[in-house]
Amino acid sequence: MPSLRSLACLFLGTLFCVFGSPQLTADDRPNIIFIFADDLCFDSIAELGNEEVETPNLDRLAREGTSFSHAYNMGSWSGAVCLASRTMLNSGRFVWQAKEIYQQSEREREEGRWWGEMLKAAGYRTYMTGKWHCRANAQKSFDVVRDVRPGMPKDFPEGYNRPIEGQPDPWSPSDPKWGGFWEGGTHWSEVVANHADDFFADAAEHDEPTFMYLAFNATHDPRQAPQEFLDKYPAEQILVPQNYQPLHPYAEEIGCGRSLRDERLMPFPRTEYAVRVHRREYYALLTHMDAMIGRILDAVDESGESDNTWIFFTADHGLAVGQHGLLGKQNPYDHSVRVPFLVKGPGVKAGGRVKEPVYLQDVMPTTLELAGIEKPTHVDFHSVLPLMDGARSAYPTIYGAYLDLQRSIRTEQYKLIVFPKAKTVQLFDMLNDPLEQHDLAANPAMAAIVKDLFGQLQTLQTSLGDELVLPAELIGS
Asked: Do 215 and 349 belong to one domain?
């Protein structure tokens, strides 16, 4: 049976496959639909193991396509992790290289080193709606653009430091009077789906292959959803995560304390009651977004182009929502750095599961390969197509960084986390302790593993241009 990669060569006419298939006409190249969520943890899809949440349309995508179970965000030089993630995504550069070009992102776009520009140059008709959060001009990055959204909807003082058990909640996630996702009169997730409908109608009138960048602000706070979706999740029935803590022991030293906006949404110390309420609102917004994604998937099926369309779904990073005493995404634990990553397309295995580690930004060079574009030298990330054929990951270890406050390295079995200002390290056995509850760093029997991972992390830092010096004293050397 031919491999997915050889099928892609024959089907797509990619010039750069080893079999040297002849290039097909532009009309034969696939349509590409990229659906992007915000703040979505890797374990937030029912089909992939979450028994609390209703995500029938993402479940459908996972069943009809292949899921990458270990997809990561590399980190951030900014408290706005979204900004760094999206700059990496659209520029193709690893985190510190993306930081270097961040201020010049518009020049990068003008000179053609930007995701949308590369696909336009290859003859794709490109569309965009929703959250952008890049410095490059979104209106010029795509052919058709609607409602470019900021980093997050407007928030309000009543949405912070809540809820407090036994006291009235000053804020309602379903009341449009607060604005936020309701600003403009239509929930922003519905606006994305509405524009997607328009895009499909426009694409039907053109012969070029299509690229759509459909970016939801959901599930970012303020987590607002119609009441019918909140009613699906009574707060008293929501489970408290197994790795719940009232406070993270190093919250202040790692930049996740009371001064961080994301963390101030919930009272300190965290209570099980507050965690349940926040997770309820998180799930309701997710299920509402899922319904809008269902509209997009239906539109693909109704277009008559589903056999020539690739669909990618991922998120810019995850979110803690009460795990480890944290609420936001500015931390190195899997709930915050790991995301869902779903792929559906011609020849993709239905119900497939790939455990090889990837970065979420690998979606960009994957689409370039599908479009018949040779990967430019400035693109650091890698196509995931070989991994669906059984190849090994291009990343033997996964790197993580946040400001100068956190560093991490992940192998298949272990994760070493370094908190320089807290003067401490943590070690977790990810195979036996996936919720990262049992820190092994102080165990003398693990000293050699800590030392080895620390050395590998330093090597990674050098290769990635990370200038933060991690003193050997952190591991007692």
From this structure: yes
